[in-house]
Amino acid sequence: MQTSVDGNQSSNEIAGADQNILNLLDSMDNYLILVDSLSSSLRQGWLELASARYSMGASRVNSSLFDLKSHQASTTLQVDNGGIDTELPCFTLCKWTSSDEAKLEEDELLKNKSDSPPVQHLESEERKAEESGSPVTANNHVEKERFKSLSMFGTLVSPKLRATQSTFETTLETLVEMSNLRASLLCAYDHVQKDRKTD
Amino acid sequence: MYGFEALTFNIHGGYLEAIVRGYRSGLLTAADYNNLCQCETLDDIKMHLSATEYGSYLQNEPSPLHTTTIVEKCTLKLVDEYKHMLTQATEPLSTFLEYITYGHMIDNVVLIVTGTLHERDVQELLEKCHPLGMFDSIATLAVAQNMRELYRLVLVDTPLAPYFSECITSEDLDDMNIEIMRNTLYKAYLEDFYRFCQKLGGATAEIMSDLLAFEADRRAVNITINSIGTELTRDDRRKLYSNFGLLYPYGHEELAVCEDMDQVRGAMEKYPPYQSIFSKLSYGESQILDKAFYEEEVKRLCLAFEQQFHYGVFFAYMRLGEQEIRNLMWISECVAQNQKSRVHDSVVFIF
Fold first, then answer.
1. Terminus of chain B with fewer CB atoms < 10 Å: N or C?
2. Which domain holds residue B203?
3. Does B51 fall in a domain?
4. Which processes are annotated in GO (biological process) (chain B) (predicted)?
């Protein structure tokens, strides 16, 4: 009987170790797919930027037009360093928040941190849409923020420059996804290392 | 012949027409572009260009090259040729040649004003200005807070002064005002250039009317497409269209109310010269519209050289030179980014 129980325990351990290895390999595979996707979208973005410069002229699309006045970031990254329930850090992208909303979110974040366990934050426009029940309003807000961000190159910009903006936006999302995946990859690696040591 | 220009043109314009036709023969051919498109690095491009008219401008540039360096040096060549022609020209050709640069002057003014609004260093902005559009007091633009000051402090003594009457306000400069100022100035400039060419008469008037009308129509289409989905109202959009061209006035009425690319296509396909351009695009597509317009422009500019004894050849050469620089910029970017498969997306062959 004892031998059978011990046998069951060790086969469970082996199954657990195999699962950890599978998790590691899955995470690695997904990570490499994202790396490839990132490379591809960056290449596309840079070429679209060159195309926008071809279309609008070099004097309208160049780095000397970047706005150096102090202003709130329209897109922020929130890092949740993990808590009681999870050891993984969590990266969340908040896209296209206006300056007023950025301050509001910062206040809410500080308030939530002072309470109990940290909560993952949705993108601000999605939360607003859920509260107001109006996805159209949220989309209009996002479009306004996009327009405002591109206005440093002029208010009448070519569709190619807007396509460039959209591509780099996708790139940013991929980067955040990669960060989250890397965190889970490292965690899976730690589990595999632990299993090897116990063996 | 329109006005018996053959009898008198060569007295004052013969030498420079010969010079500009010589410059035209130095433009890159399809064979040159094919060689350039096969380059692996920017140094290869420099090596291929060393056998062309650009050779002396690039030969002293150290490696590693940058795409902006290639564009800058090629632009210098065009500027030198322009200045040579301007110094040799007499009236009215000298005024005609100066008109060609006013578009660059407007771009430079807007660059300085926008950069200043964004708290950029003036020296840095001056380095980015197009050399054909430079004037003495350009750096003083940085102190102006609104258009009235812009005009009073700087632009009143420049050739752009007459174009400011339609856009002088005391409102502070912001991104939207600057954009409207840019397009209003350009509209006034095109109309003034058109009237000047009409006054010259003869073959110059005939050929330049066609070229400037095409420019006005292209700007109308670009303004329409670029303003879709923005805060620019229909009335403001209509005000930015020039008061001449094939699309004036009925095409402009239709373009002013367009809300998407398909409506723009619908408005433009009623005009046979533009039907061929829009037939190359699939529905909803606008990515290759620029190339299609540039190809049509190059065709018309090359046709200007088929006739003698008119000033249109000077305008055509400068525009073809600018197209050549755009081509070199695109090829350099594709080579630098290792995306040679996309090089033919935007190169417009001149010959």
1. N
2. 5-19+83-311
3. no
4. vacuolar acidification; vacuolar transport
